[in-house]
Structures are given as structure tokens and as C-alpha cells.
Amino acid sequence: HRRVRIRDLHTAKEHGERWPMLTSYDQYTAIIFDEAGIPVLLVGDSASNNVFGYDTTLPVTVDDLLPLVRAVVRSTQRALVIADLPFGSFEASAEQALGTAVRFMKAGAQAVKLEGGRRVAPQVEALTGAGIPVMAHIGFTPQHEHTLGGYRVQGRGSDGDRLVHDAICLAEAGAFAVVLEMVPSEVAKRITGELRIPTVGIGAGPNCDAQVLVWQDMAGLRGGKLPRFVKQYADMRTVLNDAVAHYADEVRTGQFPTDAHSFE
Ligand code: KIV
Ligand code: NA
């Protein structure tokens, strides 16, 4: 069982085979998703919201994410593990991006992901040149939510051309794939057709080469109103709610522990 490689993802596109990607931030989800055959796992900066309890992805740091990357790498045998470069760790220069990416690669990641359009092409080129595969990420980029004016679909109308051009620039800079987040299906379809590298959709319609979701959204662990692009495949929040209520009740009423859980 060797690890999935970038080559395999490019071959999949050539053969018209779609692949699923999920976030993972810890041992057990990494083991379960790896055993399920998810070929690509992302240690996303969405850990900011989904692990560390912040409102946005902005506060999470490289030092926060490194131990999560190590955990996911240690817990997988087959999946390609991608580390997300957090806000503030790569924008200033290609040198800054390289310094950050090297830290993640030394932690065992096999690729990194970074947000932004053609402005970050120099970063993509520097990393790729140094032997670090880069997944790009355009459309709605959560690290830019304050300039984008919140969670909004990007690339509507004539703005679609800008996204197509960004995708081409990033592919030419050496990106091995590009995430398209919250873009109209038609734009995603255009980009998918124009590029030889795979597109990974999230809120980008049914015509991308791959799909990604945050695992807590996919598995129904997160409460509240879900974005339109999420499909919930389980109701883990209810499962855990029921389990914890049952446990608390049995402790309070003396039904647990019994002799069966005790030592003589
Ligand atoms: O951090 C993240 O979870 C992501 C994916 C949603 C693409 O960037
Ligand atoms: Na991210």
C-alpha cells in the first residue's frame, strides 16, 4: 500500500475518474478516512473554526497546525496529506512561503495548499521549484473574507473571466490542482475544461474533477445552519448528544459502573 501521489491524481483526470477529498485534523478521523480509501486528506486551516473554536480561519497559526499535520501523517498509510498554509504565513513573499512550506513538509506533509489568485503565483512557482507540490485555492477564499465582504459566491458574470485567468496563471506557475470554492457551476466547468490539472470543488457544482468537504460538516458534527454546498451524510451531533446524555444519566443513577466494569 503505497501513498497516493500527485501523478495518480493527474492520471485520474486523464481517465475521467472523480475523487473525494476530506479535511482531517486528528488520529481517528485520519485512520477511518484512510481505510475508507479517501485518497487526499487536507489538514485545513479550517481547524481554526472546527478544532480551535475561533470564528474565522484568520487566528490559526503554523505552530497550531503542525501537530495536527503530524498526527494525520502518522495515522495514514495511503492518503496524500496536504497541509494548508494559514493566514499570515506566506503572503509577504516567495521566501516566506518557502520557509513555512518547508516546516510542513518536514512534519511529513506531502503537499501544501495556499489561498489566492495570480498574486500568489510567485509563491506557487518557488515552492514547486523547491520540490513542494502546491494545491491552489481560488473563488471564495476564507482568509480574505474581510475584503470579499463575507461568505459570497465569487466569479459571477464578467468576474468569471478573472477566475479562469487566475486558475490558468496558477497552473502555469506549477500548481498540481486547484480548489474552486463557491463559484458558479458554469465557471467551474470552464476552468475544469481549460486546465490539465484537476479542479477540486466545494460549492462549485457537479463538473469538477474532485470534491472536498470539511469532515465535521459532512458527518453532521457541526450544528447550526449549514452552507448550501454541504451535504450531511450522518448525524454525529445527535449520536454524541445521545451517548453523553445516556452516560451522564447512568452515572447519576448508579447504573454505571457495575461490577462488570470493576476489578476484584
Ligand atoms: O481549510 C479547509 O477546510 C479548506 C477546504 C474547505 C478546501 O481550505
Ligand atoms: Na483552508
Automatic annotation (TrEMBL):
Source organism, top-level taxon: Bacteria
EC number: 2.1.2.11
Record text on cofactor binding: Binds 1 Mg(2+) ion per subunit.
Binding site for Mg(2+): D45, D84, E115
Record keyword Cytoplasm present: yes
EC category name: transferase
Residues that coordinate or bind 3-methyl-2-oxobutanoate: D45, S46, D84, K113
Keyword entries, A-Z: Cytoplasm, Magnesium, Metal-binding, Pantothenate biosynthesis, Transferase
Active site: E181
Family, as annotated: Belongs to the PanB family.
Assembly description: Homodecamer; pentamer of dimers.
Role this protein plays: Catalyzes the reversible reaction in which hydroxymethyl group from 5,10-methylenetetrahydrofolate is transferred onto alpha-ketoisovalerate to form ketopantoate.
The name this protein goes by in its record: 3-methyl-2-oxobutanoate hydroxymethyltransferase
Organism expressing this protein natively: Fodinicola feengrottensis
Lineage start: Bacteria, Bacillati, Actinomycetota, Actinomycetes, Mycobacteriales
